[in-house]
Amino acid sequence: MLLRPVKDTEEDAETVRQLATAAFGDSHALKGDAPPEPPSPERVARSHERIRHLARHDPGGSWIAEDPTGQPVGAAQSAIREGTWGLALLVVLPSAQGKGAGNALLQRALEHGRGCLRGLICCSRHPAAVRAYRRAGFEVHPTMRMRGRVDHARLPAPDGPAVAGTARDRDLLDSVDRRVRGGAHGPDHDYLMRHCRLVVADDLAGSGYCYIHETGMVELLAATSRRLATRVLSAALLSLGDGVVAEVHDVTAGQQWAVDVALDAGLGVRAEGFLCVRGLRPPSPYIPSGTFL
C-alpha cells in the first residue's frame, strides 16, 4: 500500500471526489437510504474547491492510498486550526476495505495532528469507522439528524436581531470559535462565505453565527449561549424558501436547544452517526461542519 499527498490540482480533487462518492454510496446502502442522485456540475465544482482548499491549507493532512498497481483505493483529509485538529474525510473503496488502507490513512492523518491538544471527527454509523476512532482514543457521542420542510408559521421568530454576515465579521466568527471549540476556523470561513448564507447575532448577551446552504443544509453553527444559538438557527431556517428541505446534522444530546428549534420548525428527528472528540468535551452550543468540524 502506497500513500502519497493530495496535490492542489483538479486531477487529484476529482480522484478524491470519486473515491468519496463510491465509499459514501456504500454507506448509504448500509443505512438503507436511497442512492444519491448524480451530482450537478456546480456540486462537482464545489467538491473540487473544498478538496483543494484543504490540500492547500493543510498539505500534510491530505493523502491518497494506492494499491500495488497504482490505482487509488482511499483518501483522507485532515486540518489543523489553532491547535484543534479535525478529520474532514476518510474513505476507502468497498472493494479495498479490510486490507489496511483505512488504518494507514487514519494513522497518517493522526500524525498530522500529533501536536494538537484537541481533536474532532464527525463519524457515520459504519461499525468499522466507530471502532477505528474509538481505538485511536476518541470519545464517541451519538448524534441526531433533523430533516424536513420548515413550517414558517409554527417556528417562532428570533428573539432579537440576526442579520446577514459579511467578511467584516471574521473577527467575531473566530472569537466565537475559540470560545466554543478551542480554535478558530480561520481560512475555512472564506470558503464557507463563498458557498453559504451567513447569519450573525451580536449583542451585550453574546455572539453567534450560522452558515446555511441554499439547499437547506446547516453547514456550521457556533454561539456563546443557547439563546444566541437558538436565535441564529431559527433565523437561518426561516430564511429558507417554502419548498426547501432543511437538514441539520451531527447534533449531540447536549444540544437540546437545537432539538427544540427543529421540532418547532416541523422537522423530523432521528438518531444517526457520532461525534468523536479527544481532549475536549463535545462543543456547545455548536453544530459542527462535517468537513471543517
UniProtKB/TrEMBL annotation:
CDD domains: NAT_SF (cd04301). Transmembrane segments: none annotated. Residues 23-43 are annotated as: Disordered. Pfam families: Acetyltransf_1. PROSITE patterns: GNAT. Residues 1-158 form the N-acetyltransferase domain. InterPro entries: Acyl_CoA_acyltransferase, Bact_Acetyltransf, GNAT_dom. Keywords: Acyltransferase, Transferase. Coiled coil: none annotated. This is GNAT family N-acetyltransferase. It comes from Streptomyces iconiensis.
